[in-house]
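Contributing new records

If you add data, match the layout below exactly. Sequence lines come first and carry their own label; structure lines follow with theirs. Keep one chain per record. Anything else will be rejected by the validation script.
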Amino acid sequence: MSLPHAVLTSLLEKSTSGYDLARRFDKSIGYFWHATHQQIYRELARMEAAGWIESSSAPDAGKTRKREYRVLPAGRAELIRWANEPTPALDLRDEFMVKLRADAALSEVDLRPDIRRQIAHHQDRLAHYRSIEERDFLQGRPLPREARIQHMILKKGILYEEASIGWAQEMLEILAC
């Protein structure tokens, strides 16, 4: 996935300033596609130069240079083109798996502290995802298609965190031997 497509998606959901986009990005798409605020601002400039988005002075800009961005038809067409392309299979590159192979080959490695940190990280993220699910999706009312898709994205994150915790706890037991 490329950053411009993630930004286009977010802007289609809501036209906004670069600052607000970066903050929203951190709380949504950023869970599975990380980008710094600086990267987002650079991408906004490139996308505007390409004619995919346009900006105007934000209504609340006052004397600042605050801009509000919105997607143009060319940006929408680009997002449709990209979304219809086949998605390549995930190419997993996990440094920790290489460290585990090193642990299997060496006797001087102790990865238990790292595993414990990972478990804590996954538990925190899982608790956060579950709070989002409770707040946004579990009110017992029918959800529109857009919300059901967003809930399924969140469920994948929940399942990933649960599986990561289970795997790490099992690995911790093995490393304790």
